[in-house]
Amino acid sequence: LLKNPMRVREPDQTLPLLADGYRWLPAQWEQTDGPMVRTRLMGRPAVAVRGPEAVRFFYEEPRIERHDALPGPVLSTLFGHGAVHTLDGRDHQVRKAMFVDLLKDPDRVEALASTVGAAWDTAAEQWTDGRRVVLFDESARLLTRAVCRWAGLPLDASRVDDVTRDLVAMVDGFATAGPRHIRARRARRRAEQGLMRLVTRIRTGERKADPGSVLDAVVHHQGADGLLIDTHTTAVELLNILRPTVAISWFVAFAGHALHEWPDQKRLLREGGEEYARAFAHEVRRHYPFAPFVAGVAQEELHHRGEPIEAGTLVLLDLYGHDHDAELWVRPDDFDPGRFTGRTPERDELIPQGGGDASAGHRCPGEDITVRLLGLLSLRLARLEYRMPAQDLRIPLERIPTRPKSGVVLGDVRYGD
Ligand code: HEM
């Protein structure tokens, strides 16, 4: 490939991206000298940017918009059509304020943490009977049970496994053209239909949502036009709270992987308690691959570090690259929670869930929840004694999203001292 390939029309990279996963963008950077990768995705010109200046550019440039940036297959699986992720301007501001109020309120975060902690304790009691425990599956199940309870959503015990499977499938199948993708579409359809029925019953007065609950707030949310959002969009946004909370199970599996790879971390967690657990959670989010990049579309010709970006270009912010950039991190491939002990990361320093200001832009409003729950579950895991039976712990980088292949299997689980 040519260096400085601006002069040639790039071949479309959608299939290579799907085939190479997390390796795709780093390989593009290796072939680039300038401040941005120039490529094509989904039939349109695309650029990828990274570094602190790029984070500010991506989040503060009002002419980078989100409608039209996410391909249909990603909306039909991961986020849902009409999701907050796809809104701009005032529509986004009003919808986003609802998420921020619900998800960044410290009391609600603590209430969810205590529900999740109790769900783990109940599950862990059963693990000590000698069975083999798949950490990924168990944490997805207990997160499903806890987030539904916390949100005020009725969930019969007999349906926990099915609902968990659907919430996991939506995340697992968004970036592939294979059977996982079909499963993800079906899962979304089923989940949206179930929630739409519930929303309709509440709105017609046939059922009541607990006053002040997350369900109540989303069902009665009014958009920028002062009207209730439609039933389908309400279901989509409820799922945008349930699904990513359950997706924390990907990070829990990575935490299990980290405790195996760096056994000293177990002792450090036990000794360091909640404060160390917070730093550990940050390092899990930094070190392991999850969201590779986020995307917007340039609405007019823009310039970044002196380079033109023509109108209509897809602009990708390289989250995974940023969190492993050797210019920003000392020995980026080491796993070292010490990077974050005794301090809070700067706004645009650590961006596995996006950068900028969560209230003003599209940064993930669920970051406080993620850090709190991941810290709490990592600490509980570290306090268990268990054996790691022979298993495949490889993390295939060509699969998005990835996780240790075995899901992290624990044997002979016992409570620690
Ligand atoms: C947005 C990652 C957990 C709710 C995002 C974005 C990323 C992300 C990369 C896009 C940022 C952007 O477009 O600039 C993650 C990861 C999580 C996680 C890796 C760990 C499992 C959560 C949780 C919740 C949540 C727990 C809710 C309880 C959302 C919502 C948005 C979002 C509603 C859309 C925000 C907007 O468009 O304004 N997340 N997230 N996420 N996340 Fe998360």
UniProtKB/TrEMBL annotation:
Keywords attached to this entry: Heme, Iron, Metal-binding, Monooxygenase, Oxidoreductase
Family matches, as InterPro entries: Cyt_P450, Cyt_P450_E_grp-I, Cyt_P450_sf
Metal-binding listed as a keyword: yes
One biological process term in Gene Ontology: sterol metabolic process
Recorded superkingdom: Bacteria
UniProt keyword Transit peptide present: no
Coiled coil: none
Region annotated Disordered, chain positions: 342-362
Cofactor(s) essential for the protein: heme
Residue positions binding heme: C364
GO molecular function, one term: iron ion binding
Similarity remark: Belongs to the cytochrome P450 family.
Protein name (Swiss-Prot/TrEMBL): Fatty-acid peroxygenase
